[in-house]
Input
Amino acid sequence: MNKLWLMLVLIASTSLAFAQKGKIKFEEYDLDNGLHVILHQDNATPIVAVTVSYHVGSKNEELGRTGFAHFFEHLLFEGTENIERGEFDTYVTEAGGALNANTSQDRTFYYEVLPSNEFKLGLWLESERMLHAKIEQVGVETQREVVKEEKRQRMDNQPYGSFLYEMFSRAYTVHPYTWIPIGSMDDLNAAEIDEFRTFYKKFYVPNNACLSIAGDIDVKETKEWIEKYFGSIPRGEDVVQPTIVEPALGGEKRATIYDNIQLPGLMLGYRIPPYTEADFYAIDMLGYVLSNGQSSRLNKKLVEEEQSAIQVFAFPFPLEDGGLFVTFAIANAGKQLSDMEGPIDAEIARLQTELISDSEYEKIMNQIENDFVSSNGRISGIAESLSDYYLYYGDANLINTELALYQKVTKEDIMRVAKKYMMKDNRVVLEYLPMSEKPAN
Amino acid sequence: MKKILSITLIFIFAIQASFAQDVDRATRPAAGEARTPEIGNATSFVLDNGLKIFVVENSKLPRVSMSLIMDDGPIYEGNKAGYMAMTGELMSAGTATKTKAELDEQVDFMGARLSVSSGSVFVSSLSKYTEDMMAIMADVVLNPAFNEEQFAKIKMQMLSGLESSKDNPNSINAQVYSALAYGKDNAFGEFMTEETVNNASVEDCKALYNSHWKPNISYIAIVGDIKAKKAKKMVEQYLGAWAQGEVTKYQMETPALPATTNVALVNRDASVQSVVKIGNRIVLKHGDPDIAPLSVANQILGGGMNGRLFTNLREDKAFTYGAYSGYSVNEYVSSFAASAEVRNEVTDSAVTEFLYEINRIRTEDVTARELELAKSGLSGSFGRSLESANTVANFAINIERYNLPADYYQNYLTRLQAVTIEDVKRVANKYMEYDNLTICITGKATEVGNLGQFGEVVYYDMYANVTEAPMMAAPEGVTAAAVIQSYIDAVGGTEAISKLKTVDSKYNVTVSGMPVTLEMRVAKDLVKGYLYEGMTMGDQVMQATVVNGKTGTQSGRGQSQPLEGDELASKMRESKIAFDELLYSSEDYVLELVGMKNNEGTMVYIVDVTEVASSEKSTNYYEVESGLKMMTMTSQETPQGPMSLTNSFSEYKAYGDIKMPSKMQLAAGPQVLNFELIEFTANKTFDKSLLK
Output
């Protein structure tokens, strides 16, 4: 059989599939077992993204057993009852596709991008994972070591690599957001195989998942095959998401972290509400005002004019139960953290007392529109967006309407959220200093 | 009839059964018909000034991006390395009519992007702002301000960037690898440092712009929601006046491969993982027929999750989060290299596996399955890349720039399909070296294991300068006295040594560059304090030192003089001791544990021993594992100034209850003396005739 997929692309698209440029049309429905399905047809390029999102992340873990959700992300490549260990990725590569996954505090996302004539392969692979993934000792042992290396590579061996860990462990103390998805090596070492199997049975069920497919499909045909592969997967117990409420921070928390860095770094994390709350759009826009583009407030002040920072970012880190608004600034050689903290505080104070200008407002609206359009450039991105909008908001159509929600935010709203959330007693401040500045004991 | 009926019934049941079943989960579903859509096109134009324009229409999203690329080639920056990068930054930092702040504001206001490098300009925006962005692009290209203040700021940022990269093991390793694989004397191996960045001035940026920013060597790709004719008109309007000019092409010699495998180690105490890169330079130009087979060979070796490197180092051994290989295509030179970040303790084992896999693909046929899988992976990746209209634009530019056939990319899959197992082996041998590799590792030297097995380990700093093996602190609890005691224990122990009354050692001595063999004899009566140390050539006594318990003489070539003062005292002490270390605990000596380091593959403690009376210092290396002394280094005053003397000890052997090095080497500058212990006797009566 000719496995080689001869493909020459159709680029010039005179397709009339989109009467309104950029609008994403899709269908969605539920299977009897609770699996939510979203389908977006786009026949421009003969590829398809098959994705499954499980509503389980690090916040569903228990103290003492952190890192499970992310660990599962690795485990689920190890094989199923019908797929031998090591064969999962081979099937995809052989078909000319790519695959990967990612885990957050709130959900775990798996995807394959395949040539469109292989969409059934994607359905088979993902349904196999959902129905009967193999949780075996050899897989667990291998992936334990791999995850340790991942942690070392991403966090321990990287300058400032520990900042999310340091930030979240202080910003949240009661809610599971206090730990980060990679979890603790000790917990992973201590976990028994039965605990992994229990986790799987509890969370990897169709009623806790969303199957989102975008690309060159025929919707009718796809629905038939979805029923064949996923229809008979039994519904699981209802999954109850944690309802822990993190109390207010109750006062600024500061810490100094000595790290293997040369340039000091300043990180501020302000507690923000869940991103499904109405205030979120205004908070996101604060990020645009402060650091999107070189003419943004913090860039202009710290990088261009005062030259105290080599880089500065301000952006929300949104989470389902409430996240952080993060400001991250790295000092130029020879500059101190205090050279940056003062001006950053001053800019935030300005936002709390003065409305942004009309032209600034128009500027960020244009930027948001631009980003919105760009985010729908790839079908894998579209599939993920549809899935996330459904999972967090219960409304996949936000992929088309969210821009309008941003456009509803007023200058007054922006000032209001700055006043409400960007308060010193609502923030964690981390000072990252070079090891050489650590006082000798 | 019955048989036919029963068969028919079975058949019917079988059909019914398959309808009842949803789907056969045990096997992978069959693929459908592959779609063969139409070929995409780029429309091309050339302006009078030589600027080539490529337009790819795609109205799926209301966006347009424009990339202007100058084919100005690499440039060797030399002692001002960094000015090219600064030129790019500077050119988006203001034009004749706009300050940086104004430019930033304008771009940001449209929600657009502008980025400039030393040889390119990239803009993207919503299609309604296309002409505005074209105007900005042209302004940047034609009227850069080269503002001094901006330059100073950029320089400072560059220096900060260099500062921060000092702690980034990935940048350190990449930098040192390139410097070694290509040499520092060309555009590919050089890198910027604080010094070179400080040497650069605005004038250098202006000169670069004036000499290299010409339309006749440039290409502009316009992709997105715009009609080709309109795009051409727009470019003509804004960049038509850009004046052309001659641009000199960079020339360089192809760097040689190293004669043997180089093992380079950059020490980083803070590392919990080693960054490992193993490779060699290659010459592989665009359009080379080896590209397709090499892409397949690379895919098999280290192209992704199915690569041999990933399967071996991650899935099988769990050394790493990921191990891959890669190469690039370049008109001058590039590299084939395999790399990974592995935890400290398995660094040497990881290198073993890398070499094993490189060797395997060179010497054994890959399997038909691997070949097929690699081709599928590559064709899939090619296909997915075509989701982006920019890919088609890049193809069009490449065809023009590198004189490729017009159907080069259309035939990509055909070329790929034609690769055979023999092809893979051939290119593996041609492009993946095995004996002439550069193995570059940035990691914690004390924990990387034995790298000496792969070649001579040379330590480098992050600037690819050869440096000393790093000194590290000895572990908590280790003291100089303890190290000395370990040595004493290793050579027999205090009790066994105390049983020695006399010792007599005879050595054969060879001198570098001299065809003769000398003999050396050291005989001591430890109780009476007699010492004889003599070097003879045949019957002739070259030099002899004698101590008889009270006095001492030094003689040679017929002359003799008495030993006096500190020298005599020192020799008298020596005459009573078989091992100098026994003296070190006394008040006559001061000890200092300097640290620990990796000495040519062996971890050693370094102890400074100072004789109080003479202030003479010896730096001694003791092997951590065995306790045995490996080396002593002293400095001797000569008429020509201080000279360093290194005494090395090896091949310790047991002589009764005592251990002695059967081989010694004394190096004094270029002179090297090798001593072989041919006879050792203990407790035989001291030969008094030696005292004459």
About this structure: The CA atoms of residues 365 and 421 of chain B lie 6 Å apart. The first strand of chain B starts at residue 43 and ends at 46. Confidence is low (pLDDT under 50) at residues 1-21 of chain B. Chain B touches chain A through 89 residues (CB under 8 Å).
